[in-house]
Design a protein that fits this description.
Elements lengths: L1 H4 L3 H9 L4 H19 L6 H11 L5 H10 L40 E11 L2 E10 L5 E7 L4 H15 L6 E3 L4 H4 L1 H9 L2
Parallel strand pairs: 1-4
Antiparallel strand pairs: 1-2, 2-3
Helix pairs in contact: 3-4, 4-5
Length: 195
């Protein structure tokens, strides 16, 4: 094999027993951490951000070195535009209720005024939607539901939970946005039946 590859036998045996230098070992460990941060960020972090993460771990490294190792290993950050999720679809044919609250967020007793909304929560595994109902007097979340889909069932479950927990008297003002989930026939009927 040495003759075919034109390598001396002594050179081959030296290569087999050679241990990497401290510099090569450090570079290998650093490359491993850079690759970990790169993949942990879903391929979004570039050399400035990865260097920042490495500094937090105690590494002493320049941004230039991180960039060089990234290029050497074919790691290139993928920048994406900011993603804004619209949780209110007010372009629907459902009737909408009159604005009883009219920007008056004060309340004199519990279960006098409730406000409801849907919030988008970005997660590593995907997206989640949180429907919640807040009592304006106690500032307590009286009902909530989490789902990966923004449906009428999501807001219905939060409403059912709120009524089961607080059993409010009639006359409760329930305020939400004018989204399709809150304006749906099922949701309006539930509010009417609960008083």
């Amino acid at each position: 094999m040495c003759q075919v590859l034109q390598v001396s036998r002594s050179g081959y045996y030296k290569w087999r027993t050679l241990t990497p230098s401290e510099r090569a070992q450090r570079k290998a460990r650093l490359t491993e951490r850079i690759q970990w941060h790169y993949h942990d960020s879903d391929l979004r972090y570039g050399s400035p951000r990865i260097r920042h993460e490495l500094l937090k771990e105690g590494w002493v490294v320049s941004e230039r070195t991180v960039g060089f190792i990234m290029r050497e290993n074919g790691l290139r950050s993928c920048m994406s535009r900011k993603f804004r999720v619209a949780t209110t679809d007010s372009n629907h044919a459902f009737p909408t209720a009159k604005n009883e609250l009219n920007q008056d967020f004060s309340a004199t007793k519990p279960s006098e005024k409730w406000v409801a909304d849907i919030t988008y929560i970005p997660c590593r595994q995907g997206k989640l939607y949180l429907a919640s109902i807040l009592d304006l007097y106690t500032k307590q979340i009286v009902g909530w539901k989490l789902s990966d889909r923004m449906t009428t069932d999501l807001v219905m479950d939060a409403l059912n939970q709120a009524y089961a927990a607080k059993n409010p008297e009639s006359g409760l003002i329930h305020h939400s946005d004018r989204g399709a989930q809150y304006a749906s026939k099922e949701y309006r009927n539930k509010l009417t039946s609960m008083g």
